[in-house]
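Minutes, project check-in
Item: structure for the 375-residue chain
Input as provided by the requester:
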Amino acid sequence: MEFIERKISETPEAVAEYTELGQLYDQKLWHQLAVKVEDLLLRNPHFSGDNALQLYNQFLSLVSSRMNPVKLAVIVSLIGRSLANVADSMALYDSVLAAKANMDQDAVLCIDMDIVLLHLQQSDLEKAKAKLEEYEPTIKGKKTSESVAFSKYFRSLAEYKKIVGPAHEFYSAGIQFLSYTTLDDLRTEEKHTLARDMAMAALSGEGIYHFGEVLATPILSCLSNTSDVWLQHFVQTINAGNIAQFKQLTVQYQSQYATLAAFHETIQWKALMLALVNLIFERPSDSRIIAFTDIAERCEVPMEQVEWVIMKSMALSLVKGSIDEVSQSVKVTWIQPRVLDVAQLASVNQQLGTWIEKVKTALVTIDDNAAELFV
């Protein structure tokens, strides 16, 4: 408590916060104390850098044995990431892991994943890779019940893949990270960076032809009202299969889109593929014979290129069916499952409504025509 009392007298701008920490300590509310400290580290600029390190060394470390070990690991992580000097962060993590033998294994995993991030900052990719491979069996075998541990692992894996590639593996790790993480657990700058990187990976990554998973999370909303909002617009437009709007965006954001010039052909094919997939998806299940003219209109391609578009979608296993060159149509028997957005769910709801009405009509017809059989 000496530390808290000294801070109350030395830092008038944070009197209320230190006073509350002192009260929670006096009342022995260790969980509430840990939650409050985590919140301050995330949202209060005063509780960062040296101030955060002092808070741990002179206060939290004295009561660390009474806190949830994973929650304590999260707190240590936030403090380490706020330090300007990598050596100071590593020293903090090493001091915590000095008692590794007596620590909860999930907490050890969390700290080790923060060490991976430090290795990446120092461009020591081999050490980072070795540590990730060490914990891969634990994650794949789901030998931990703590979502924080999964979040930490996939965050570090995503950062590693961001450096070494390929883009689609970064995207996959990022999706996993987001599935175990709430945006409230990230600082503002971290949310923006992740949103930008996920959008660029979705657009440029090989084999990523559905953006529903990333759009189902709120991460891309972090690009709104920023200079990178154009990425959000491209992802949403391509996912909807709107070729006309895609072309409009390439003009509207010409200078920004130029940064993706090397991936223009890939992005263009994704737009075409999703235009075709959305066209099929919007059709009722009993209306899956689609004329080439409809595809040409929706994808905005010449008639002579329609068959290439269909064959490409089949080669990518996005669509299954058969092409009838005589009738200039394609019979679709299957489309790849994907995560749907609100508009697409509304379309499904409408199709279900139509199907229900057809079933009711069929039932009434059967009842009317079969009545005489029950006389």
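Outcome recorded: The mean pLDDT is 90.
No further action items on this chain.
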